[in-house]
Design brief:
The protein is of the alpha/beta class. The chain has one domain: P-loop containing nucleotide triphosphate hydrolases (Rossmann fold), CATH 3.40.50. It contains six helices and seven strands; from the N terminus they run βαββαβαααβαββ. Strands 4-5-6-1-7 form a five-stranded parallel beta sheet, sandwiched between helices. Strand 5, helix 6 and strand 6 form a beta-alpha-beta unit. Helix 4 crosses helix 5. The chain binds adenosine-5'-triphosphate (ATP). Adenosine-5'-triphosphate binds next to helix 1. It comes from Commensalibacter papalotli (ex Servin-Garciduenas et al. 2014).
């Protein structure tokens, strides 16, 4: 068991910050909420529907930012975002402008800095019309100015009714968030 006695609820416009030491299960909990991992006990519901029985709907509702930026190195920033923008008919230029990376649209991902890759991954979040953002340490690699920008992006999203669940080891500009603190329940990792 990685964690136990986890209990929280979130309504439209609210956010939750998951904290805890390395290995506490923060990323694992995000994966569970995304429907990517099963749980041994308990239930997770969305408007009273068990998400494990409504996996497709759950994947449609969420936008997921993992630790890995998952960019194709040979493709440009714009090309990396094309699939998702075509899928949801959303505007790449606008997403790149929002996260202030529009001047790098034609640069291959392999030439980006760590922070520029993170911004590109965040642009991908903006391109999916999701109701819930699941963000794994979104500020990693970002400079202070971009972290502040992230605060405005978070606020815009929650003001429109979006919900955010994010892990972090550092303070994030996310006002009035609920906090969930996880403590490690296991000492040895076994294959999940
Ligand atoms: N695929 C896996 N197979 C087995 N154990 C895993 C797997 N992924 C994670 N774990 C274990 O589950 C526990 C929780 O990992 P998780 O990545 O969720 O922690 P975390 O709180 O996000 O940590 P960090 O702060 O370092 O990012 C750790 O003990 C880890 O070793």
């Amino acid at each position: 068991m990685i964690f136990k006695k986890v209990n929280f609820s979130l309504s439209s416009g609210q956010s939750l910050i998951i904290q805890g030491p390395n290995g506490a299960g923060k990323s694992t909990l995000l994966r569970v909420l995304a429907g990517l991992r099963s749980i041994d006990a308990g239930t997770i519901t969305w408007n009273n529907d068990n998400i494990t029985e409504h996996y497709t709907e759950q994947t449609q509702r969420i936008a997921w930012l993992s630790h890995q930026d998952s960019l194709k190195p040979a493709l440009t920033v714009k090309e990396n975002l094309q699939l998702i923008s075509q899928l949801y008919q959303t505007d790449i230029e606008s997403a790149l402008k929002t996260i202030k990376i529009d001047h790098m649209a034609d640069i291959p991902a392999r030439m980006l800095s760590a922070g520029q890759k993170r911004r590109t991954a965040l642009a991908r979040i903006l391109l999916k019309p999701a109701q819930l953002w699941l963000l794994d340490e979104p500020s990693v690699g970002l400079d202070q100015e971009t972290i502040e920008l992230l605060g405005h992006i978070f606020k815009d999203f929650t003001n429109q009714g979006g919900m955010i669940i994010t892990t972090t080891h550092v303070p994030l500009p996310l006002e009035n968030s609920k906090i969930l603190y996880l403590t490690p329940s296991i000492s040895v990792a076994r294959p999940l």
